[in-house]
Amino acid sequence: MSRKTAVIGGGAAGMMAGIFGAYAGDDITIFEKNQKIGRKIYITGKGRCNLTNNCDIKTVIENTPVNARFLYSALNRFSPRDTMEFFESNGLALKTERGNRVFPVSDRAGDVVDTLLKVSRQAGCKIVNKTVSDIVIENGIVKSIKVENKFLEFDKVIIACGGKSYPLTGSTGDGYEFAKKAGHNIIPLKPSLVPLETVEKIPSECDKLLLKNVSLSVFDTLTNKRIYTDFGELQLMKYGVSGAIVLSASSHIREMQSGRYRLDIDLKPALNEEKLDARLLREISDRKLNDYEYLMHAFLPKQLINFFIEKSGIPSNKKCSEISRTDRKSITSALKKFSLTVKSYRPLEEAIVTSGGVDVKEIEPKTMESKLVKGLYFAGEVIDVDCYTGGFNLQTAFSTGVVAGEN
């Protein structure tokens, strides 16, 4: 007689746990409190779903700043290559883009969800759209779960409820409460892959201004070290900064203190200071009678000009013909190093990933079973493991889900 297994959470980890649990011969029921599975998958990769990274296991480990060693067994069982083969063999065509990020050819996150749903049904999983409110444990063994005031008996329970970021997708921290009640230690939660608030007030005209093809470097002023650099899109917001390269940068800021971290934005990364000065001279020559403010239209989006002028320290009404060599140095320096100071993370609810969670010391890495409660397993973001952007977090969810399901 097959074991009865309840999977709590129909996200990336929960669906994979259900599918591979069914493949292993278990009678699987996936409990998802939303009316649709995979709500968080729909919003990953700007709705395109960066589902893994086309790389080896070593690269995944290198992109996991928190508890990477815990993942060795899971990644060896289900690697990025296995993820790609799983989806492609089930009819989802994939493509690899910059940074080895893997997306569906269709650019539709919904196709990833549809594939998981189709395969789970083929495997024989039952999906129930109801909320689990409790897990009953007796003498250190899982006995049942409570669903809408009814107690349902199960031999195994897999907690795959996600973290506490993006609560509208259903990630409201239920898994931590279940784990805590079962006796597990929860490493304090904090946001990862999250926008950043700045000490500097961003002018209202710059709110939501998207800067493409800029370079970002993050410096820890306490150690005077550069801790991160990237190239891509950055978005100015009324509270600070967001955008792909900022989200990645945030996960490298491990000890948040207001004023400790400096963001240096290179607004013209394609030009070094010498070439930028030569261009500046040409533009000045063409606009001798114009003000400095007008000159900057040749270099920046109009919404950014006043903010930039303020930071460069040159009066906006200074005539181009009066701009000195020292002024030019200030302008090129500000274009190459437009600096902002980090004040704090944005709230956890706005983070893509929750850092912290169930202590990995209390989970058996080869099976994902609790070391404290027999028959209780964990998968995905509820575990204290988090990665950088690039498909690594979803890969972790898939790998831990497969291992939990099979065991």
Task: Give me the secondary-structure topology.
Elements: E1 4-8, H1 12-23, E2 27-31, H2 39-43, E3 52-53, H3 57-62, H4 72-77, H5 80-89, E4 94-96, E5 101-104, H6 109-123, E6 126-128, E7 132-138, E8 141-147, E9 150-153, E10 156-159, H7 174-181, E11 186-192, E12 196-198, E13 209-220, E14 225-237, E15 240-242, H8 244-250, E16 261-266, H9 273-286, H10 292-295, H11 302-312, H12 325-336, E17 338-345, E18 353-358, E19 363-364, E20 369-370, E21 376-378, H13 392-406
Parallel strand pairs: 1-2, 1-10, 2-6, 10-21
Antiparallel strand pairs: 3-5, 4-5, 7-8, 8-9, 11-18, 12-15, 12-17, 13-14, 13-16, 14-15, 16-17, 19-20
Helix pairs in contact: 1-6, 1-13, 9-12
Architecture overview:
With 407 residues, the protein is an alpha+beta fold. 31% of the residues lie in helices and 27% in strands. The chain has helices at 12-23, 39-43, 57-62, 72-77, 80-89, 109-123, 174-181, 244-250, 273-286, 292-295, 302-312, 325-336, 392-406; strands spanning 4-8, 27-31, 52-53, 94-96, 101-104, 126-128, 132-138, 141-147, 150-153, 156-159, 186-192, 196-198, 209-220, 225-237, 240-242, 261-266, 338-345, 353-358, 363-364, 369-370, 376-378. The strands form 6 sheets. A 6-stranded antiparallel β-barrel has the order 12-15-14-13-16-17. Strands 6-2-1-10-21 form a 5-stranded parallel beta sheet, with helices on both faces. β19 and β20 form a beta hairpin. α1 (12-23) runs parallel beside α13 (392-406) and α9 crosses α12 (325-336). The model has no long low-confidence stretch (mean pLDDT 93).
